[in-house]
Structure formats: structure tokens, C-alpha cells
Amino acid sequence: MRNMNNIMRHELIGLECCVECSKNKAQTGIEGRITDETIKMLVIGGKRVPKKDSVFVVKLNGEKVHIDGNAIIARPEDRIKKKIRKW
């Protein structure tokens, strides 16, 4: 089950998402459902947003979870298998 501790090891497609900050200021504030994910991009509401240098806020079980885009740069199927180090 997805929760805020293991969200990076689960599928992101289908979740409501907002771009909190991005290197490209025009992409900050884009909201919508994640419809596709590639190695370097998320498609949110029909717009392509690079993962690199972006911070995403995902709504999960009524809570807002912040995800650093630099931490999820990988193919979705490889990211799910990858071990995430805890601080």
C-alpha cells in the first residue's frame, strides 16, 4: 500500500499532483493528474514537466507528500526496484 514513507517505490500514474517549484518558472503551479511517466519527465494534465530540478506535491490518502524530482529520475520500472536510502 502506498504511503508517504514508500511513495517513491510505487507507481505515480493516476495520482493528483502539483508542481511546487521548478527550474522553469512557467511550469510552477501546474496541477492535474499524472498520466504518464518517462525516465526524465512526468506528464501532468497533458503538460510535460522535467523531473530534474523540480519539486512535486502529490495528494495521497488525504495528505500532501513532497517529492524531489531529482530522487525519482529513472525509468519507472527501475525506480520501483531501487533501494531508497533513509536519512
Summarize the structure.
By secondary structure, the chain is mainly beta. Helices cover 7% and strands 40% of the residues.
Describe this structure in words.
The protein has 87 residues and is mainly beta. It has a single domain (7-81), classed as Ribonuclease P/MRP, subunit p29 (SH3 type barrels), CATH 2.30.30.210. Helix content is 7%, strand content 40%. The chain has a six-stranded antiparallel sheet with strand order 4-3-2-1-5-6, with no helix packed on it. Strand 5 and strand 6 (63-68) form a beta hairpin. The protein is globular and about 30 Å long.
List keywords for this structure.
single chain, 87 residues, mainly beta, SH3 type barrels, six-stranded antiparallel beta sheet, globular
**What is CATH's topology name?**
SH3 type barrels
Number of strands: 6
- Main beta sheet: 6 strands, antiparallel
User: What share of residues are in beta strands?
Assistant: 35-45%
Uncertain ranges: none
Number of domains: 1
Architecture per CATH nomenclature, i.e. the level-2 architecture: Roll
Large-scale geometry? globular
- The Cα radius of gyration reads 12 Å
Total of helices: 1
Q: Helix/strand-derived class? A: mainly beta
Physical arrangement of strands within the biggest beta sheet: 4-3-2-1-5-6
Q: Helicity range of the residues?
A: under 10%
**Roughly what is the average pLDDT, rounded to an integer?**
89
N→C terminal distance: 22 Å
> According to CATH, what is the class?
Mainly Beta
